[in-house]
Amino acid sequence: MTTFDQDRRQLVALTDDVLRAHCGLDHLRARLDDDTAHTAALWGRLAETGLVSALVAEDHGGAGLSPAHLSGVLHSLGRHAVPEPFLETAVLATSVLGALPGPVADTWLPRIVGGDALAVVRLGELTPFLPYAADADLLLDLAADGSVRAFTREETEVVPVPSLDPLRPLARVTVTGEGTLLGSDRAVVTRTRSLAVAGAACLLAGAAQRLLELTVEYVGVREQFGRPVGSFQAVKHKAADLAVMVDMATAAALSAFDAVDDPDGASRAAAAKAYAGDAAARANVDALQLHGGIGFTWEYHLHVWLKRVMGLAATYGTTTALRRDLARELLARVTEERRG
Length: 340
Known about the structure:
Belongs to the acyl-CoA dehydrogenase family. The chain is α+β, with helices and mostly antiparallel strands. It is built from eleven helices and nine strands. It has a domain at 188-339: Butyryl-CoA Dehydrogenase, subunit A, domain 3 (Up-down Bundle). A hairpin with an 8-residue loop joins strand 5 and strand 6.
């Protein structure tokens, strides 16, 4: 095992330890009861461990790691249904600010590193609604022409919109001020889109993994005709088929996030998100079916991950939209090769 692999495993282990201690069912239930997803306490814990600042350069107080270090961390965050904007702030926003140095980055990166600020990123048509925008202190608006502008809370109007997943609230954001131009770089926009899509795939695969775990645990203790329902062949086959899909989705998602800087990074991210969407949709259906009536109840906790999966599946590109884009790209490539 390489040092790089050891570092990644240690980061995942650290993430799991923190989330088991501070983001268990009691925390998620409390967030639902209070109708508030983000809390300064949990975000502060993530900042204290250095996870929030992992991708930030050392001269701004971060660890200077690469995105490949965080693929497993994102998977773990999805598995624990963490109600915090880690992908949006700790991955997307820090990557944009790090790629476009200047006064804005010098001001906001130390605040993000310290856990004192949240930031969200708008990526054109890919983000009609922004998760956790109501809690954000900074909006980074990435346009198709490559320009990147930063807007403070005072320069935006945020209107919450109904969200299927209350632990991942959405909002419509309207810019009311001029903002600050950070620069213009199409490569930054393209890379950020790939990070968003691949990162969402990792979160989605993690949530699907948790649905599988909950289902296997339940069918192992639920009895019918004097024996656990998990002992019936039909149930075994369904669980085994789902396990294969979830494992393949996890492999695709993690490898795509690791490869965002490769020439085919955007295509790999789209393919991984589409496949993770399929696996998660299957996990939702099978989990509900194998749980029976209890799976629909508010008192049982399955709904936390059912809603998380459905919300993530529609985030940063739906399965259908991503596959359509991949098909168009492939068709254009084949057409060009034939003409050549």
